[in-house]
Amino acid sequence: MSESFWEPGSTEQPHTEARPEFQSETHQQEPAAAPGTLALSAADFKSLEERILRTVDIVKRERLARAAAEERAIQAETQLHEHGPRFEQLEKELHAFKDEREHVRQRVERLLAQLDALEL
Q1: CA-CA distance, 64 to 14, in Å (whole number)?
Q2: Given this model, what pLDDT does residue 34 score?
Q3: Alpha-carbon distance values, 111 to 19, 62, 92, 105 (Å)
């Protein structure tokens, strides 16, 4: 049995003899790792590295999106405080116009009633 040791940074996988009944279709049997260590094949390590990089990218994008959303919220609050008094003034004017409309409607109804009374 010949063994060669895998060196970090090497693209070659270490050669190990494994029985076919213990090999999976996608991974070769790894040599027994020392207690407390995690044995990863180069493909597993590359896959893990890619997943970590994607996760970091997602976190960066989400932080940027969160910062932009917080900025928009601050701008909206500022506009609300700036326009709040104007909104209250417009609301008062609206109520005054509604009251005036109701008063005019009542006057028109009285005039129409007086006209109806004259025609009889």
Answers
A1: 42
A2: 58
A3: 108, 67, 29, 10
